[in-house]
Write a sequence for this structure.
């Protein structure tokens, strides 16, 4: 089993890439792009954000098992935010695919930027303070 610190660094790096990707997607859905710019963002989402999201889940589960964090009260709250961000990523990806086909994105995704910022902030706060 790799060192706990190495797993933690990889998890944080992957989570940072996911956050960047979600923010990028949020900006695209707020001010829709077209053509090659939209294609570039979709490629980033496909080849960077999506694999990073998978890595976040896998590494996070390994870290939670290694650190015996499943008994902690803060972890289910953090996981709720992670599940929400994972679902948001799916909605964003689908909406960008529909944008590329000429359809409009759902109006509620215009607020995804705020959901990403609040969720990532809550996750960082929960992980760094472990309040309960």
């Amino acid at each position: 089993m790799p060192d706990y610190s190495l797993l933690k660094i990889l998890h944080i790096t992957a989570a940072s890439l996911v956050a960047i990707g979600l923010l990028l997607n949020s900006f695209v859905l707020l001010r829709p792009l077209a053509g090659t710019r939209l294609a570039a963002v979709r490629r980033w989402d496909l080849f960077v954000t999506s694999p990073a999201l998978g890595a976040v889940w896998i590494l996070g589960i390994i870290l939670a098992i290694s650190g015996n964090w499943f008994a902690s009260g803060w972890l289910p709250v953090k996981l709720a935010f992670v599940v929400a961000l994972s679902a948001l990523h799916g909605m964003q990806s689908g909406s960008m695919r529909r944008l590329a086909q000429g359809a409009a994105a759902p109006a509620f995704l215009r607020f995804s930027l705020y959901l990403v910022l609040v969720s990532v902030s809550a996750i960082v706060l929960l992980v760094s303070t472990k309040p309960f």
Remarks:
- The chain has a mean pLDDT of 95.
